[in-house]
Design a protein that fits this description.
single chain; alpha/beta; Rossmann fold; 3 domains; 13 helices; about 20% strand; binds beta-D-fucofuranose
Length: about 375
Amino acid sequence: MKRKLLAAFLCAAMVVTMGAAGCGGSSNEASTDDTAAEESAAEDTTDAAEEESGDDAAAEESDGGVITVGFSQVGAESDWRTANSESMKNTFSEENGYKFIFDDAQQKQENQITAIRNFVQQDVDYILLAPVTETGWDTVLQEAKDAGIPVIIVDRMVDVSDDSLYTAWVGTNPLLEGRKAGEWLKAYAEAHNIEELNIADIQGTIGSTAQIGRTQGLEEAAEKYGWNIVVQQTGEFTQAKGQEVMESILKQYDNINVVYCENDNEAFGAIDAIEASGKTVGPDGDMLVISFDSTNAGLTDVLSGKIICDVECNPLHGPRAEELIKKLEAGEEIEKENYVDGEIFAHGTDVESVTIEGTEYPVTEVTEDVIAERAY
Ligand code: GYE
């Protein structure tokens, strides 16, 4: 919106360099290599040019205050991620006054970097980034900063040398989530006289904030309470990988009694593997499965006891990101870090609450009503 003239200039430059007409447009599918990504950006811009025919001045007028937002999404690895993408798309809709450019990076940082560069070239008004891992963003964020485009980090965090490389962050706190799971397990084990805990940790994408925090939460509890973390392996936050990793763990170890899955989809895969091996999960079974996210399907497994405890991580960041953008548009100050709270859901009522650093967090027993309220 505010940089339209510069956009028009960049647009002309792109026409010359790419042999395509127009600016803007969307790239729905990220390509695996840069050349292909550039080609698809060129195709996208052609479509946009057809829609937005006329000269630049007319385009400026017909813009009518539309805010262009480019969103670099990690991928579609989990139900949580799908709900997150939906929330963004529903919020940044045409009816709400946005032009939304959504890019699915298929879990690859290089695709995210390409997407951000395309957003800069298209001179979007805001960039939203859900980073796959924490490191490796300095260069591309500097490019966005140099172009004067505010970047809002969503969900996972970035680890950059200079915090001014992004405007704000909004997401949940995976370390707190991991600590909640650890304290819940401690209280549950006590209530059930389980003396020895032999834990398999199926980790998330290595180097992502969600993995780092949830793994640390478990490691802290294991250290404090003398539990045995038998094996740690990544399940990349997917059901398929969760199942594959659990199958191989079951072949190597016969003493596992807790499976700590760092998201619901990994838990679904792990449960399938455990049951296929002839073992059982649940309060009276061979293994307790702990999980994160609390999706509708996750909570359904909590009701049956297949997942014994599921720590919530809320994916509905669309309206939260929009609130930040609205404040920036109004010239208001915004908080740099914006944390979203989550609940603890469990099977049964053995543990009523857990306390972490002096704060008490209640535990909600999952019922049909709780599941009915969960849309994703
Ligand atoms: O828990 C998982 C997703 O980063 C918090 O990523 C997010 C995690 C979420 O794939 O399901």
